[in-house]
Specification:
The complex is a heterodimer of chains A (208) and B (135). Chain A has eight helices and no strands. With 208 residues, chain A is an all-alpha fold. Chain A has a single domain, classed as Cytochrome c oxidase, subunit III, four-helix bundle (Four Helix Bundle (Hemerythrin (Met), subunit A), Up-down Bundle), CATH 1.20.120. In chain A, helix 3 runs antiparallel to helix 7, helix 5 runs antiparallel to helix 6 and helix 6 packs antiparallel against helix 7. The mean pLDDT of chain A is 90. Chain B has 135 residues and is mainly alpha-helical. Chain B has a domain of 47 residues. In chain B, helix 3 runs antiparallel to helix 4. Classes of the chains: A mainly alpha (208), B mainly alpha (135).
Chain lengths: 208, 135
C-alpha cells in the first residue's frame, strides 16, 4: 500500500502508459521466439536433406537395418516426460517455490541427459557396425539431422545447469525468470522437433 | 532490494499485460497433463503401426504416421508452447505462420525438385545407365 501510494505520487499517468506500450519484459521472449523460428529453418533444411537422400544407401545398410525402434521409443518417452516436468517447473516458478522449481528442473535435466547418453550410445553402436556418417548419403543426412538435434539438447542441459546455479544463488530475480522462460520455450521446441525426427526419419525411414 | 515496489508496479500498473504474459507463458497443470496424454497417444499409435505391421499398405502407414506427427506438433504448440493468437499481441503467431509457410516451401520444393530430377535426369547419362545395368 505504501509503495503504491509513493508510486502514484511520483509517476504521472503518462509515464505509466509508455511503460505498458513498450512491453520491456516481453521483448526478450519475442526475440527468443524469433530465434527458435530461425532454428526451425535449420531443421527444415536438414529434414529436406533427409527427405531427398533418405533412400540413397550406396549399397550400405538401410534404415531398416540400423534403426532400433524399441530404443527409439525409450528416447521419445524420455524427451516427452522431460518436456512435461519442465512445464511443472514453470508452474512452480509462478508460485515462487524455489525448491520445487529446482527439483523439477533437475528431473528434466536428468531425463534429457539420459536421452543424450542413449543417442551417443546409438551413434557409437552404428559407427562400430560400419554404419558411420561417411558410409552413405542416407547416413550422412541422418547423422547431421539427429546430431544437430542432440547437440541442441546437450546445450539445453548445460544451459539448465547454469540456470539452476543462478536460481540457487540469486532466487527469482526478473532476469532469472526471463531466462527460465526462454529455456522453457527452447526445451519444448526441441521436443517438438523430435516429433518430426522420430516420425519421419525413423518410422517412415524404416517403412520406405 | 526493490522487489516489493516492482511487484506493486506490476500488479498496480500493468496488470492486464502481466496477466497476459502469465497466461501465455506458464499455462496450468491441466494444460500440461492434457498435452502429455494427447502427445503420448499420438506417439504410441505410430510406433504401434510401424512395429506391429498393423496395416499392410506401406503408403497408407506412411501417410497416417505423418498425419499423426502433424497433429502432435499442433498439440505440442498449444499445450506445451502455449502458442495462441494473443501472446505478444499476435507476433508469436505471425512469426510462426511465416515460418510454417517457408518450411513448407523448403521441404515441398526440395522433395518435388529432387524427385523430378531423379525421375527425369538420371537416364540421360549413359555411364550411369551402364553402371545401373551392371550392378
Amino acid at each position: 500500500m505504501n509503495t503504491i501510494a509513493v508510486d502514484t505520487v511520483h509517476s504521472e499517468p503518462r509515464t505509466f502508459l509508455c511503460r505498458e506500450e513498450a512491453h520491456p519484459h516481453n521483448g526478450t521472449l519475442l526475440g527468443f521466439w524469433l530465434y527458435l523460428m530461425s532454428d526451425c529453418f535449420i531443421f527444415a533444411a536438414l529434414f529436406a536433406c533427409n527427405a531427398v537422400l533418405g533412400t540413397s544407401y550406396a549399397g550400405g545398410p538401410s534404415a531398416h537395418d540400423v534403426f532400433d525402434l524399441p530404443g527409439l521409443a525409450v528416447n521419445t518417452a524420455l524427451l516427452l516426460v522431460s518436456s512435461v516436468t519442465f512445464g511443472f517447473a514453470m508452474l512452480e516458478m509462478a508460485r515462487q517455490r524455489k525448491r520445487a522449481v529446482l527439483g523439477w528442473l533437475a528431473v528434466s535435466g536428468l531425463l534429457a541427459a539420459c536421452f543424450v547418453a542413449l543417442e551417443i550410445h546409438e551413434f557409437v553402436t552404428m559407427i562400430a557396425e560400419g554404419a558411420g556418417p561417411g558410409r552413405s548419403a542416407f547416413l550422412s543426412s541422418f547423422f547431421t539431422l539427429v546430431g544437430t538435434h542432440g547437440l541442441h539438447v546437450t546445450v539445453g542441459v548445460l544451459w539448465l545447469i547454469v540456470l539452476m546455479v543462478q536460481l540457487g544463488k540469486h532466487g527469482f530475480t526478473e532476469a532469472n525468470r526471463r531466462r527460465l522462460l526462454c529455456l522453457s520455450m527452447f526445451w519444448h521446441f526441441l521436443d517438438l522437433v523430435w516429433v518430426g525426427v522420430f516420425s519421419y526419419v525413423y518410422l517412415v525411414g524404416v517403412l520406405r | 532490494m526493490s522487489h516489493p515496489s516492482q511487484s506493486a508496479l506490476e500488479h498496480g500498473t500493468s496488470h492486464h499485460g502481466s496477466h497476459d504474459a502469465e497466461h501465455a507463458n506458464h499455462g496450468n497443470l491441466r494444460s500440461y497433463l492434457t498435452g502429455f496424454v494427447l502427445a503420448s497417444i499420438l506417439t504410441i499409435i505410430p510406433f504401434w503401426l510401424v512395429m506391429g505391421h498393423v496395416i499392410h499398405g506401406t503408403q497408407a502407414t506412411v501417410l497416417i504416421v505423418l498425419g499423426l506427427a502433424a497433429v502432435q506438433i499442433v498439440v505440442h504448440m498449444i499445450y506445451f508452447l502455449h502458442l495462441d493468437t494473443k501472446s505478444e499481441n499476435g507476433w508469436n503467431m505471425l512469426a510462426f505462420i511465416f515460418t510454417i509457410v517457408l518450411v513448407v516451401i523448403v521441404l515441398g520444393a526440395s522433395v518435388w525438385v529432387m524427385y523430378n530430377e531423379n525421375a527425369n535426369m538420371m537416364p540421360m547419362s549413359p555411364q550411369y545407365m551402364n553402371h545401373k545395368q551392371g550392378s
